[in-house]
């Protein structure tokens, strides 16, 4: 028996049945109440989802990039918010694995089984432009004193541990790991976002938080590299989430279009509808191929920055457009808040911004491409 | 208690494909899952073990890829697993399958309890549990809905049959089949999957058991499948009357008149 293959198959069987029973039936309710109803988060925790990518030596399951992306693909078909909550956690765990020193890893990786970790970079004065941030850390003997305000954090308010980007000099960016239990840590306001409404997005305030040197991720000045690495990992997973959203749209549309009749023909027989369903199918499949390709390259140690950016840049617009097609196919019902189509557009739309705007990603994709050819 | 749970891997989809020539289930290209009632059987076994102690052995007869479902059973908490796999077992009907399962249970020895799901969702016969019980010569309780250990060798079992509720106290050795109400199947824990590989999963072929080769596989299977078809859904013949008694009586009298079912009075 191929142990790795068997492990993955058992995992994916569980994730499918978990999604069917615990996630999908509550999709609309999660969207409307802006919360993980029916104890979803507790169930996700109890099934061990928080530990999916944490290495085995730290008590985790140690699944690779391909498998973790597939897991989020399946979950997102049931509800995109919960998949994004896990995406935020996984990419943060991965940066601690990549850049944390032994002491930091020994402290926080075992905790990742029970406590969500988030990754705040954005501030009121800087999103796409990291140098625009004001948060800063100053060295005092063996420790650092951190001050600043971070906004729009995926899982902000829910997560208990934060990898925060701060300035350690006027033009020097670094990351520190802070904990909600530290003196000077406070939660700020929650965003009222258009989509992914189940996933809390919020603010943290850091007021003279003192941390030991080992809370520094990597080395002083490694902020840009760590930030980019987190983006790459997140974008692979978001490609998977977007694929899940499109599969959800296709499920709804397929059922509706085969049952709904115009005159005596099911509308799926109409070429205008077929055109839309075909475009949706192509959009779903291309996004899936892109995220899986990025994940395979990541697992085999190749550069995957460009593929990851393409998965999210292509997938996010494709899912918004595919959602628009789905809405149109459902006619007036598609436009109704009582049907689960409109919120899939709102959910997908978030990913044209989160983890880097599509505009910035296109710049990255173009520069990598051009450089590789000259 | 030493408990054996029979598990079958079934196609994930409810849209089962049948091989036109052999009339057997075509398993190619379809990923499998543990038959849903067998999840209830397994959970029941784990619950009993957790109260009275002992071991749970998951057992399955089938091709090598059924091992995935046994590994899943180990991830869910079973202590050991046995895969019964041999070309000679292929093409078996329920009788030939029951024979191999019974022989394997005899080989394990000292088994107090055998639990299986009420039926498999692909073949739907519901025969396996009873066949194995008969071959082992032990008592059986089918369609068990609630099972509680009463002592080290006794179980209290509830079964709901149409309109009656039965409570049975049964002594081991015993065979149970479980409905979808028995046990509350849990999800595999993401981290437990890798730990399950430390538990034993053994494969037995026909050489590992003292079996009569005439009773194996196709040659041991008296069942001949002539035709397979999906029955057309039938409109129910019955009529629903009002729940209000007076109205219902009026409606009923009306129908009896309309259908000319009442003897005419002179
Ligand atoms: C659902 C959601 C979750 C989020 N989660 C997190 C999180 O966990 N952590 C975190 O730190 N942040 C998070 N964010 C914030 C997100 O990363 C920022 O919104 C994003 O980086 C854009 O920054 P901004 O909002 O400041 O917009 P700006 O940077 O001000 O951008 C405004 C516009 O200008 C364009 N633009 C800006 N700079 C360039 C450029 N160099 N080239 C081309 N176009 C440019 C942008 O594309 C955009 O259209 C999240 C956002 C959302 C919507």
Topology, please?
The complex is a heterodimer of chains A (374) and B (266).
Chain A: H1 3-23, H2 27-33, H3 40-46, H4 65-78, H5 80-99, H6 102-108, E1 117-118, E2 136-140, E3 143-154, E4 161-169, E5 172-179, E6 185-190, E7 201-212, E8 216-217, H7 223-259, E9 261-262, E10 265-266, H8 271-299, H9 305-329, H10 331-334, H11 342-350, H12 358-373
Parallel strand pairs in A: 1-4
Antiparallel strand pairs in A: 2-3, 3-7, 4-5, 5-8, 6-7, 9-10
Helix pairs in contact in A: 1-4, 4-5, 4-7, 4-8, 5-7, 7-8, 7-9, 8-9, 9-11, 9-12
Chain B: E1 2-6, E2 9-11, E3 32-34, H1 36-52, E4 55-61, H2 67-76, E5 80-84, H3 94-108, E6 113-117, H4 128-136, E7 139-144, E8 146-151, E9 154-161, E10 164-171, E11 174-178, H5 192-195, E12 201-204, H6 245-258
Parallel strand pairs in B: 1-4, 1-6, 4-5, 5-12, 6-11, 7-11
Antiparallel strand pairs in B: 2-3, 8-9, 9-10
Helix pairs in contact in B: 3-4
The structure holds flavin-adenine dinucleotide.
Flavin-adenine dinucleotide is lined by residues 88, 118-122, 127-129, 152-154, 193, 196, 201, 350, 353-354, 356-357, 359-360, 363 of chain A.
Organism (chain B): Companilactobacillus mishanensis
Protein name (chain B): Electron transfer flavoprotein small subunit
Pfam families (chain B): ETF
**Count, helices of chain B:** 6
What number of domains of chain A? 3
General form of chain A:
globular
> Biggest sheet of chain B: strands, sense, closure?
7 strands, parallel
**CATH topological fold name of chain B:** Rossmann fold
CATH-level-2 architecture of chain B: 3-Layer(aba) Sandwich
Shape type of chain B = globular
List the strand order in the largest sheet of chain B. 7-11-6-1-4-5-12
CATH H-level superfamily of the largest domain in chain A: Butyryl-CoA Dehydrogenase, subunit A, domain 3
In short:
The complex is a heterodimer of chains A (374) and B (266). Chain A is built from 12 helices and 10 strands. Chain A has helices spanning 3-23, 27-33, 40-46, 65-78, 80-99, 102-108, 223-259, 271-299, 305-329, 331-334, 342-350, 358-373, and strands at residues 117-118, 136-140, 143-154, 161-169, 172-179, 185-190, 201-212, 216-217, 261-262, 265-266.
């Amino acid at each position: 028996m191929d142990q790795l293959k068997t492990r993955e198959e058992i995992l994916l069987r569980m994730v499918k049945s978990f999604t069917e029973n615990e996630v999908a039936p509550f999709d609309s309710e999660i969207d409307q109440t802006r919360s993980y109803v029916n104890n979803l988060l507790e169930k996700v925790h109890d099934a061990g989802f928080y530990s999916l990518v944490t290495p085995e030596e730290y008590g985790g399951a140690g699944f690779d990039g391909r498998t973790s992306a597939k897991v989020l693909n399946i979950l997102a078909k049931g509800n995109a918010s919960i998949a994004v909550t896990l995406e935020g956690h996984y990419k943060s765990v991965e940066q601690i694995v990549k850049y944390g020193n032994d002491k930091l890893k020994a402290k926080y990786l075992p905790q990742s089984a029970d406590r969500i970790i988030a990754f705040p970079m954005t501030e009121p004065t800087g999103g796409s432009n990291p140098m625009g941030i004001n948060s800063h850390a100053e060295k005092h003997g063996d420790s650092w004193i951190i001050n600043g305000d971070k906004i729009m954090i995926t899982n902000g308010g829910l997560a208990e541990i934060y990898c925060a980007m701060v300035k350690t000099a006027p033009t020097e960016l670094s990351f520190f790991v802070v904990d909600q239990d530290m003196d000077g840590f406070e939660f700020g306001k929650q965003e009222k976002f258009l989509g992914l409404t189940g996933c809390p997005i919020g603010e943290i305030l850091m007021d003279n938080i003192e941390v030991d040197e080992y809370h520094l991720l990597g080395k002083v000045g490694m902020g840009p590299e760590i930030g980019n690495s987190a983006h790459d990992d997140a974008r692979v997973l978001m490609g998977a989430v977007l694929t899940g959203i499109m599969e959800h749209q296709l499920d709804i549309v397929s059922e509706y279009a085969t049952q709904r009749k115009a005159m005596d023909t099911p509308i799926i027989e109409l070429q205008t509808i077929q055109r839309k369903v075909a475009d949706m199918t192509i959009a779903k499949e291309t996004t899936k191929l892109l995220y899986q390709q990025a994940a395979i390259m990541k697992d085999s140690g190749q550069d995957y920055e460009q593929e990851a950016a393409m998965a999210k840049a292509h997938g996010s617009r494709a899912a918004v457009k595919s959602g628009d097609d789905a809405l149109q196919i459902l006619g007036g019902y598609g436009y109704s808040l009582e049907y689960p189509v409109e919120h899939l557009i709102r959910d997908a739309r978030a990913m044209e911004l989160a983890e880097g705007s599509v505009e910035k990603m296109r710049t990255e994709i173009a520069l990598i491409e051009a450089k590789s050819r000259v | 208690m030493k408990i054996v749970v029979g598990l079958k891997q079934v196609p994930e989809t409810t849209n089962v494909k049948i091989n036109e020539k052999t009339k057997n289930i075509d398993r190619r290209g379809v990923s499998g899952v543990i038959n849903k009632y067998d999840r209830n059987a397994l959970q029941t076994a784990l619950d009993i073990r957790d109260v009275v102690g002992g071991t749970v052995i998951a057992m399955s007869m089938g091709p090598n890829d059924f091992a995935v479902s046994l590994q899943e059973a180990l991830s869910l908490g079973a202590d050991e697993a046995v895969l019964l796999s041999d070309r000679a077992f292929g093409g078996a009907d329920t009788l030939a399958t029951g024979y191999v399962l019974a022989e394997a249970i005899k080989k394990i020895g000292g088994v107090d309890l055998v639990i299986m799901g009420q039926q498999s969702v692909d073949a739907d016969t519901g025969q396996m549990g009873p066949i194995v019980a008969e071959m082992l010569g032990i008592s059986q309780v089918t369609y068990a809905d609630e099972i509680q250990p009463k002592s080290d060798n006794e179980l209290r079992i509830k079964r709901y049959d149409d309109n009656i509720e039965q409570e049975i106290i049964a002594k081991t050795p015993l065979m149970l089949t479980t409905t979808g109400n028995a046990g509350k199947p849990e999800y595999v824990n993401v981290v437990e999957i890798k730990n399950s590989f430390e538990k034993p999963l053994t494969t037995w072929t026909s050489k590992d058991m003292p079996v009569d080769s005439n009773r194996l596989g196709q040659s041991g299977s008296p069942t001949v499948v002539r035709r397979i078809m999906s029955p057309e859904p039938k409109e129910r013949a019955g009529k629903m009357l009002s729940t209000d008694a007076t109205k219902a009586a009026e409606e009923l009298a009306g129908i009896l008149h309309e259908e000319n079912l009442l003897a005419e009075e002179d």
